Amino acid sequence: MKLEQLPTPCYLVDQQRLIHNLEILNGLMDRSGCKILLAQKAFSVYTLYPLISKYLSGTAASGLYEAKLGAEQMGKENHVFAAAYRDDEFNEIASLCDHIVFNSFAQLEKFGRRALGAGASVGLRINPAHSTQEGHQIYDPCAPYSRLGITYENFCPDSLDEVEGLHFHTLCQQNADALAETLAVVEDKWGSWLKKMKWINFGGGHHITRADYDMITLENCIKKMQDRYGLQVYIEPGEAVALNAGYLLTTVLDTLHNGIDIAILDTSAACHMPDVLEMPYRPPLQNSGLIGEKKYTYRLAGPTCLAGDIIGDYSFGFSLKPGDRLVFEDMAIYTMVKNNTFNGMKLPAIAVRQQDGNCNIVREFDYEDFKMRLS
């Protein structure tokens, strides 16, 4: 079907844009020798895993369910990290994952031998305690009192006998300069142990497929780890895989005025694009402008009872009316994986736009999907 025939609300993943990103990532792998994993926490449209598997080395999981999804739907390298593992789930995780990363020496002591017995390569997550972010503490693993990763002060070099890799994840939507700065701290603090390792994982948050990304600096960082320490380098981006490769289609339900013009949509920031409220940020919207840039300015909001269910303020060259369709951009990442049914909101359908421009609905949701979450 054509785009205008899709129901709303609907997430739409553009296959051609996804391939564009994957080709960039695959080219980096070919030139540098690094391995790149899909961080499923950002994008888990498994219908497209056969396509993604042609370009990337595998998947990165945050627990049992993502580990199962990666193993079943991708079937390549399968890495996992969790802040803490459940005893009743760990044996299954170990049977699914070839790399298991622990967040503390206590977790290593508790589960390490079970991981090794299953044939997994064991790693530790470290915390360089060096923040390169501004304004997004909720996404900063190096923020004060962070629970993520082992700090240098808490590192126990006498417990590394069976540890083969170190993992750090400190970035969020950042360029390679932040990685280079962080890597210098990692070398300064953990350099004496890196030569004993087989691999290092740079984590995620690298905006590799962004137009202004400094690929040369990233490749230099990879080469340094390879040449200086003989390490296999892993990177596990989430956003970079599907950056700018998705849309959220929505319809105007009503308009009203209360000091400003307001349009109520059939999509919700709280339910369908929660990062808008968590970051917060103003998502790009096709054919719109900033406040006052065009003739008509509206506050776009969801239909839920949450007073703060507000997407943002946008201007248009025309007045909005019920039935108008709007298209939000960059809606493949951290949307489907985080959406919810608060207020009984219907989950958006999921569709894929093929390279020939035709669209296919791969999943629709109904009342039963809402009901199954409750009891």
Concise structural overview:
This protein folds into 2 domains: 3-11 and 246-331 and 339-371, Lyase, Ornithine Decarboxylase, Chain A, domain 1 (Beta Barrel); 33-242, Alanine racemase (TIM Barrel, Alpha-Beta Barrel), CATH 3.20.20.
Layout: helices, strands, pairs:
Blueprint lengths: L9 E5 H18 L2 E5 L9 H5 L4 E4 L2 H10 L3 E5 L5 H10 L2 E4 L2 H13 L3 E5 L39 E3 L8 H19 L4 E3 L13 H15 L2 E4 L3 H4 L3 E12 L3 E5 L3 H4 L2 H4 L17 E6 L8 E7 L8 E5 L19 E5 L5 E5 L3 H5 L4
Helix pairs in contact: 3-4, 6-7
How would you describe what is shown here?
This protein is an alpha/beta fold and 375 residues long. It folds into 2 domains: 3-11 and 246-331 and 339-371, Lyase, Ornithine Decarboxylase, Chain A, domain 1, CATH 2.40.37.10; 33-242, TIM Barrel (Alpha-Beta Barrel). Helix content is 29%, strand content 22%. It has 11 helices and 16 strands. It has helices at residues 15-32, 49-53, 64-73, 87-96, 105-117, 176-194, 215-229, 239-242, 269-272, 275-278, 367-371, and strands spanning 10-14, 35-39, 58-61, 77-81, 99-102, 121-125, 165-167, 199-201, 232-235, 246-257, 261-265, 296-301, 310-316, 325-329, 349-353, 359-363. The strands form 2 sheets. Strands 1, 10, 11, 12, 13, 14, 15 and 16 form an 8-stranded mixed sheet that branches. Strands 2-3-4-5-6-7-8-9 form an 8-stranded parallel barrel, surrounded by 5 helices. Helix 3 (64-73) runs parallel beside helix 4. The mean pLDDT is 97.
